[in-house]
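Z., the sequence and structure:
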Amino acid sequence: MAINLVLDFGNTNHKAAVFDDDELVRMDQYERLTLSGLKELLAVFPQIRDGIASSVVHYPHGIKKFLKQHLHFFVELDHLTPLPLVNTYRTPATLGRDRIACAVAACRLFPGIPVLVINAGTCITYDLVNGKNEYLGGAISPGLQMRLKAMHTFTRKLPLVELQDPGELTGKDTRESMLSGTVHGAIAEITGIVAEYRKTWPNLQVILSGGDREYLDKLLKIRIFALPNIVMVGLNYILEYNLLYAK
């Protein structure tokens, strides 16, 4: 039995997951993960031997040092980490760790099928893999909360609106109009991008994930597979691959 620790230090929050082989058994989310919080988690799961950390921000050196000292095998994901796919991205060093994790999960979950992963978080990212285990690239656009904050920041009179269900397409006041433009606009964007990709890959599988998935899932009228924690799943697959690679 392999018990793995998966850490994701993102822009908005930090996540820690425990996997029993491929099964997610625990998922914690923190505003900021501290060394004491990490030690508490490991005390609950003393069987953890191997781990992986992915970060788009700087995280405490003490956490990195602790993991290297206390885990049997530890991977800090970067552009040189061996991957179970072919990465054709022109600038792999600039590719977000979360995006490559999404691509790895897509290849593992739907082998031999083209997959578009849409991850709705701080940004909305689109990542495409073909049926040959190749990552082709994708797109990045502002996330839902970023759109709302941008309208407030870059205008004089638009308020700061909290993200919630947008309701009807036609807003009856400024707040409703901003929510409609943000969420329904993102729906139109996603629908259009998927339609363009399906002109080339009619059998394209679409995965929707990310913290803002709930606002989009019920409004999207396209065939999708919802997977809330695809980044963590992909990171776990990368860890498993590197364990085999190291033998």
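The domain at 3-76 is CATH 3.30.420.40 (Nucleotidyltransferase; domain 5). The helical segments are 35-44, 61-70, 97-109, 144-153, 174-200, 213-217, 230-246.

Let me know what you think.
H.
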